[in-house]
C-alpha cells in the first residue's frame, strides 16, 4: 500500500499538477495540506474522476486539509484536533482507512519568533502530543502524516546556522519532534535513509530548487504497530520542478500488506 502526503499550496490553482501526479504516482492514500479553499470549493468531482474518494476540511484563503483514498472506504473520525474549542483553523483531519488511523495535519508555521504565532504553534503541538499518546496507548496502527512545519535536525536543512531563530527550527519544536520518536513513533523517511540529505520544500525565491537549498518539513510517522510493515519510501522531487507546482514535493511510503 502506497501512502503519500502533499502540501499542494492551493488545491484549485494547482489542480492540474495534483491530478498529473496522482496519475503518475498512483498512491492508495493521500493526505493534502494548504487547500486554501472553502469547504464548498474543494474539487471533489475532479478527484472522484481521478479514482479517489475524499474527506476534507476547507477554509477560505488559508489552511485546509484532506484525505484521499483509492479502493478503500474512508471513515472520518474527527476534523479538528481536540483540546481547544476556540481554534477555528482547519489543520487536522483523522480517518480510518483499511483498519489504520490516518491523522493528516498541517501544523502551524509559528513565525515570527518570538510572538503569539509561535505560542500558538507550541500549544498546538501540545494538543497533538496528547492525541498521539492516546493512539499509542490504544495500541492502534496509526500514521501521523503531513506538513509538520518542523525541521527535525541540522541534516534536514540547507545551511542550518541561518535557521536558529526560525520557528521551523527552534529548539523547542525540534525537541517536541524528538519526543514523538521517544514515545515510539517512527520517522519513516529518516529510518529508510539515515545518512542522506532529504528535502521536501524549496522556496520560490533565490532559485532554491535549482540549488537544492531546501528543508525537510513533510513527514510520515508510523506507530509501533506499523513499523515492521515499512517497505520503501521517497520524495517525488521532480514534481517540484513542474510548471506552476507547489513549493513542496510529494512524500510517500509503501507498507507491506
Basic shape? globular
**Main sheet, how many strands, which sense, barrel?**
6 strands, mixed
The low-pLDDT segments are none
Report the sheet-strand fraction: 15-25%
Percent helix = 10-25%
The CATH superfamily turns out to be Endonuclease/exonuclease/phosphatase
Major sheet strand order: 3-4-2-1-12-11
Number of domains: 1
Average pLDDT number: 98
Report how far apart the termini are.
7 Å
Top CATH class: Alpha Beta
Gyration radius, rounded: 17 Å
Keywords: Hydrolase, Magnesium, Manganese, Metal-binding
Protein name: Exodeoxyribonuclease-3
Binding site for Mg(2+): 7, 34, 147, 149, 247-248
Organism: Chryseobacterium wanjuense
Task: Show the helix and strand layout.
Blueprint: E1 2-7, H1 15-25, E2 29-33, H2 44-49, E3 53-57, E4 65-69, E5 75-78, E6 92-97, E7 100-106, H3 116-137, E8 142-147, H4 171-182, E9 186-187, H5 188-192, H6 208-211, E10 218-222, E11 230-235, H7 237-240, E12 251-255
Parallel strand pairs: 1-2, 7-8
Antiparallel strand pairs: 1-12, 2-4, 3-4, 5-6, 6-7, 8-10, 9-10, 11-12
Descriptive report:
This protein has helices at residues 15-25, 44-49, 116-137, 171-182, 188-192, 208-211, 237-240, and strands at 2-7, 29-33, 53-57, 65-69, 75-78, 92-97, 100-106, 142-147, 186-187, 218-222, 230-235, 251-255. The protein is globular and about 45 Å long. It has 257 residues and is an alpha+beta fold. The mean pLDDT is 98. It is built from seven helices and twelve strands.
Amino acid at each position: 500500500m502506497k501512502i503519500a502526503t502533499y502540501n499542494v499550496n492551493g488545491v484549485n490553482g494547482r489542480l492540474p499538477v495534483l491530478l498529473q501526479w496522482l496519475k503518475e504516482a498512483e498512491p492508495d492514500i493521500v493526505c493534502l495540506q494548504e487547500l486554501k479553499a472553502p469547504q464548498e470549493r474543494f474539487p471533489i468531482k475532479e478527484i472522484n474522476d481521478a479514482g479517489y474518494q475524499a474527506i476534507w476540511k476547507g477554509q477560505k484563503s488559508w489552511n485546509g486539509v484532506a484525505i484521499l483514498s483509492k479502493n478503500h472506504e474512508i471513515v472520518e473520525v474527527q476534523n479538528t484536533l481536540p483540546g481547544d474549542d476556540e481554534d477555528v483553523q482547519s489543520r487536522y483531519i483523522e480517518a480510518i482507512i483499511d483498519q489504520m488511523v490516518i491523522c493528516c495535519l498541517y501544523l502551524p508555521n509559528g513565525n515570527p519568533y518570538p510572538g503569539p504565532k509561535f505560542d500558538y504553534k507550541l500549544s498546538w503541538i501540545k494538543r497533538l502530543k496528547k492525541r498521539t499518546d492516546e493512539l499509542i496507548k490504544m495500541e492502534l496502527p496509526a500514521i501521523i502524516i503531513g506538513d509538520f512545519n518542523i525541521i527535525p535536525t541540522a541534516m534536514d536543512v540547507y545551511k542550518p546556522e541561518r535557521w536558529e531563530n526560525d520557528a521551523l527550527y527552534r529548539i523547542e519544536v525540534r525537541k517536541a519532534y524528538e519526543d514523538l520518536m521517544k514515545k515510539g513513533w517512527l520517522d519513516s523517511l529518516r529510518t529508510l535513509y539515515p545518512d542522506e540529505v532529504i528535502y521536501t520544500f524549496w522556496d520560490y525565491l533565490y532559485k532554491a530548487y535549482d540549488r537544492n537549498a531546501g528543508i525537510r518539513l513533510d513527514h510520515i510517522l508510523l506507530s509501533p504497530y506499523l513499523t515492521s510493515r515499512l517497505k520503501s519510501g521517497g520524495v517525488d522531487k521532480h514534481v517540484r520542478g513542474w510548471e506552476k507546482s507547489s513549493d513542496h514535493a510529494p512524500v510517500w511510503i509503501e507498507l507491506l500488506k
